[in-house]
Q: What sequence folds into this?
């Protein structure tokens, strides 16, 4: 493996002889990546990407790992859109090496990296240059990390929320469901001012199979924010979000609607509770009622029947 390092006008090539990706992609390395993401308050997409890479590498990285790391790693960088600092500010403050140096007591410092050295060796000369941008462990932005994993009868296999973008007043919210079978229908209702404060918007059939391909729900979240409803309206979906998400937006609900998850049988008016502190996502229905509705549920016809996106529809999801 050859690594180019820029030093002034010269390019120095470092050769790590016999170093293979499999030597780097260990469970400890993935846990370090999760920890850094939690400290950054990063995108929920990291759950998808890191899980996928880990699976290819033969490493077990269940959702429980993300939640465990989130509980012990604080949020140190108050980045946009929920905070005032951007990537340039982070770079000027010392960048990721400086952040990792601050996090080093919580990292696997002996993990091997692409440089051929360990994390500890790489961070030897790293230094935080702005403690407002990269906060010390003793003075975090939030005590917990940027992402939480919620479970409950609405997401038996888990769901993901970016906690640092949620107003304290919305850390627990209960409200009536407003159900839509597509992102397009949900946005149309928002533009017609059909969404009321207190509602819980449900956008389903946008998961890996249902989308297909798990499209990003950026337009609905941006619309909610633009309408000034981020502190009064929640959104849940089996689709995913971008790093620009604000408000109590829960994504990756699993099982997804296309697979017959309980999100498929939610009806308008059902009361849904989101409790981030207790990691709970539930609908106020009995198990018997959910089973009854699921027994009567029928899968929808695929939206896409030809082309590359059809590869997603038959793929088992976890």
A:
């Amino acid at each position: 493996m050859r690594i180019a390092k820029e030093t002034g006008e010269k390019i120095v090539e470092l050769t790590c002889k016999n170093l293979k990706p499999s030597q780097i992609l260990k469970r400890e390395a993935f846990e370090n990546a999760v920890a850094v993401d939690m400290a950054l308050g990063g995108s929920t997409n990291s759950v998808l990407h890191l899980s996928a890479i880990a699976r290819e590498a033969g490493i077990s990285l269940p959702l429980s790992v993300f939640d465990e790391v989130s509980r012990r790693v604080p949020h140190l960088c108050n980045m946009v859109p929920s905070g005032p600092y951007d990537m340039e500010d982070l770079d000027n403050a010392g960048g990721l090496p400086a952040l990792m140096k601050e996090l080093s007591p919580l990292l696997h410092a002996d993990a091997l990296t692409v440089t051929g050295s360990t994390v500890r060796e790489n961070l030897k000369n790293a230094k935080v240059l702005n403690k407002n941008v990269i906060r010390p462990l003793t003075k975090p932005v939030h005590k917990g990390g940027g992402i939480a994993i919620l479970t409950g009868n609405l997401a038996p296999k888990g769901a993901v929320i970016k906690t640092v973008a949620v107003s304290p007043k919305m850390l627990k919210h209960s409200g009536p469901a407003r159900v839509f079978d597509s992102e397009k229908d949900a946005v149309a209702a928002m533009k017609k001012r059909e969404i009321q404060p207190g509602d819980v918007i449900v956008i389903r059939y946008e998961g890996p199979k249902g989308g297909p391909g798990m499209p990003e729900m950026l337009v609905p979240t941006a619309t909610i924010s633009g309408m000034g409803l981020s502190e009064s309206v929640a959104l849940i979906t089996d689709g995913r979000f971008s790093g620009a998400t604000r408000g109590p937006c829960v994504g990756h609900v699993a099982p997804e609607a296309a697979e017959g998850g309980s999100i498929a049988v939610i009806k308008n008016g059902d009361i849904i509770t989101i409790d981030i502190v207790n990691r709970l996502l539930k609908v106020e229905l009995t198990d018997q009622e959910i089973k009854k509705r699921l027994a009567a549920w029928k899968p929808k016809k695929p939206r896409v029947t030809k082309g590359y996106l059809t590869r997603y529809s038959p793929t088992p999801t976890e």
